[in-house]
Amino acid sequence: MIQIFYKFDKQNKLINHRLCYIPCPLEITPEEIEQFSIIGILEMIKEDNTEFLNRLKNSAQIRFDFDIKNCSNFHPASHFTILSDSCRIPVCAPIGPVSFIRFILENFYNIKHLEELEVDVRRIKKICETDYDLFDQTIDNIHKKIFHLNCNII
C-alpha cells in the first residue's frame, strides 16, 4: 500500500507531505494474484494457521515526512521514518512523488526477479529511468552534522 499526501499554501509553496509505503505482510504468488482477490487469498489461508504463519513476511513500513512548521532539534523538517514513530532520520529535502515511487520500485522490487516471473516490467523500468524530483533543501546545520540522507542526485 502506498500513501501520498501533499499540502501547499495559496502561493503553491509546499507546507507538508507524507509519503508512506506499507509492504504486504504476506507472501502471495503472481498466480494467486491473477486468480483471486486479496480477500479470496486471505479466506483460503485463514483456516490453516501453519500456512498463514509460513506466509508471514518480516516487513516494516517506511515513511518520508516533511513539515516545515513542526521542525525542531529533535524533529527535522524533512525526515525518514522506519519501524517506530520516534525514528526520524533527517533528509536533505522534501521528496517529489515520482522520486518516492522510484525509491520504492528500486529498493523493494527486484526487476530481474519480476522478469523471470514473466511480469511486464516496462512501466517499472520507465519510472526508474525518470529523473528524481526534489524540492529545495530544507536541512539545517544541526541535522547536517548527524547521520542523514543526502539526496543530491546527479
Element layout with pairings:
Layout (H helix, E strand, L loop, with lengths): L1 E7 L5 E8 L8 H6 L2 H9 L2 H7 L6 E6 L10 E5 L6 E2 L6 H12 L2 H6 L5 H7 L12 H4 L10
Antiparallel strand pairs: 1-2, 2-3, 3-4, 4-5
Structure write-up:
- Strand 4 and strand 5 (89-90) form a beta hairpin.
- The longest helix has 12 residues, at 97-108.
- The protein has one domain (2-23, 59-144).
- By secondary structure, it is α+β, with helices and mostly antiparallel strands.
- Helix content is 33%, strand content 18%.
- It has a five-stranded antiparallel beta sheet, with helices on one face.
- It is globular and about 50 Å long.
- The model has no long low-confidence stretch (mean pLDDT 83).
- It has helices at 30-35, 38-46, 49-55, 97-108, 111-116, 122-128, 141-144, and strands spanning 2-8, 14-21, 62-67, 78-82, 89-90.
In brief:
Helices cover 33% and strands 18% of the residues.
Report strand order across the widest sheet.
Answer: 1-2-3-4-5
Give the overall pLDDT as a whole number.
Answer: 83
Number of strands: 5
* Low-confidence spans: none
How would you describe the oligomerization state of the chains in this entry? single chain
In whole angstroms, the N-to-C terminal distance is 29 Å
The share of residues in helices is 25-40%
| Beta-strand share of residues | 15-25%
Give Rg in angstroms.
19 Å
